[in-house]
Write a structure and sequence with these properties.
Order of helices and strands: EHHEHHEEEEEHEHEHEHEE
Strand order of the largest sheet: 3-4-2-1-12-11
Number of strands: 12
Shape: globular
CATH superfamily: Endonuclease/exonuclease/phosphatase
Radius of gyration: 17 Å
Site (Transition state stabilizer): 161
Structural class: alpha+beta
CATH class: Alpha Beta
Site (Important for catalytic activity): 231
CATH topology: Deoxyribonuclease I, Chain A
Number of helices: 8
Family: Belongs to the DNA repair enzymes AP/ExoA family.
Strand content: 15-25%
Cofactor: Mg(2+); Mn(2+)
Protein name: Exodeoxyribonuclease III
């Protein structure tokens, strides 16, 4: 790949691509207007819940505007699905090499703009069930791939469905035994970061609550900022040192949301 230059990367779980561009959108609100306005040059999408044809149809205005698309459609209709949009050519695209997970639409990495960018959607899991065991197998598979990418300029962006510390979840006391904040999940993320990968948003926003990126649609979670920080940029050491700024593009009002997540954007110098 070409020598890397300044690059701004964003990640957003769209909670259904068609809803994000239609049902929850108005003329000036939704994923498509956001794509027109964002300064991000690479955007990772998760939970598209669409096959490749549906995704291309939903994103047709953005593609006509110059975005390049790579996608991994889900193997089960209406679930999962990840994609990467780039203002630069996508030089290569790869799925997760795994007999179990390759076709699940939970991981896609691309080479673009001189870096490797992956869009990842970790299973939600459910404590003490087979769903949690599946989540743990996926985590182990991703960790193995990250070990291979460690020396590259790479970043894995997406919905990791794990709040790492008490600063990453408002109601941490009420979630100690629930998937997403289990001690084993948090320890896995600590171990992963111990290998040199960097949670760049936390590095740029140390010792503060949040910034949260997911809030339940229910109740007053959004209004009270009772959220979770589960959407991460995990960058390799060589890319992490270039991280200059990070923000969560949180809607001003509940009524202006077009997903239950907000975009998390990092600028790499």
């Amino acid at each position: 790949m070409a020598s890397p230059g300044p690059l701004t990367v964003s990640t957003i779980n769209v909670n259904g691509i068609r809803a994000a561009v239609k049902q929850r959108s108005t003329e000036n609100l939704g994923l498509l207007p956001w794509l027109k306005e964002t300064d991000a040059e690479v955007v990772c999408l998760q939970e598209t819940r669409a096959d490749d044809e549906q995704l291309n149809d939903a994103l047709a205005p953005a593609l006509a505007d110059g975005w390049n698309l790579a996608s991994a459609e889900p193997h089960v209709k209406g679930r999962n699905g990840v994609a990467v949009l780039s203002r630069y050519p996508v030089e290569a695209a790869r799925l997760l090499v795994s007999d179990e997970f390759e076709a699940h639409g939970r991981y896609l990495e691309v080479d673009t703009a001189g870096v490797t960018v992956a869009s990842i959607y970790v299973p939600t899991g459910e404590a003490e069930t087979d769903r949690q065991l599946e989540k743990e197998r996926f985590m182990a598979t991703v960790a193995a791939r990250m070990a291979e990418l460690h020396g590259a300029d790479a970043v894995l962006c997406g919905d990791w469905n794990i709040a790492h510390t008490e600063n990453d979840i408002k109601n941490w006391k009420g979630n100690l035994k629930k998937a997403g904040f289990l001690p084993s999940e948090r320890a896995w993320l600590t171990e992963l970061l111990g290998t040199g990968w960097v949670d760049v948003v936390r590095v740029l926003h140390p010792d503060v609550a949040g910034p949260y990126s997911w809030w339940s649609w229910r109740g007053k979670a959004f209004d009270n900022d009772a959220g979770w920080r589960i959407d991460y940029h995990l960058a390799s050491p060589s890319l992490a040192v270039r991280a200059k700024s990070a923000r969560v593009d949180r809607a001003d009002l509940y009524a202006l949301r077009w997903s239950d997540h907000s975009p998390v954007t990092v600028s790499y110098g």
